[in-house]
């Protein structure tokens, strides 16, 4: 999976910062349900709020702001309204669509079962491939990643994913779309 950057020595994601409505509930989910240790807490100056960091493995962190003046959630704009296998994938330009956590392929099926046992609503398992549907029922040589999706208490779309094969030059084969290709919804 190595694709060395010739310009900068990037070492992965230091942190991804999201916004929550209830920091205690966020701790309960990310540390309690997902097992991520809470490693740093910050009180923001001027009573603005808090910024907490969770270890999500390999030196990477996911962070949350609790901001006293945050607007309400905007499902369908800031993040998808639901799970991708329910047809919910859209979010606005500049939004964060979802966070995918890398999990070991040999433990993928066990993690799926464990999440269900925790009472977490999960999508069906998606075996992503290059078919016209983009997914298949079964893993086959064309499957490149297996995943399932779920949401945190604030509706942030999360994914457990595992790569199933090594990419080659043939995997970069599509012409990029531009702003002119967008179907922008019109106001009614």
TrEMBL record:
VOC domain sequence ranges: 12-163
Gene3D superfamilies documented for this protein: 2,3-Dihydroxybiphenyl 1,2-Dioxygenase, domain 1 (3.10.180.10)
GO terms for MF: dioxygenase activity
Entry coiled-coil feature ranges: none
CDD domains named in the record: VOC
Keywords: Dioxygenase, Oxidoreductase
Pfam families with a match to the protein in the record: Glyoxalase (PF00903)
Transmembrane segments: none
Protein name (record): Catechol 2,3-dioxygenase
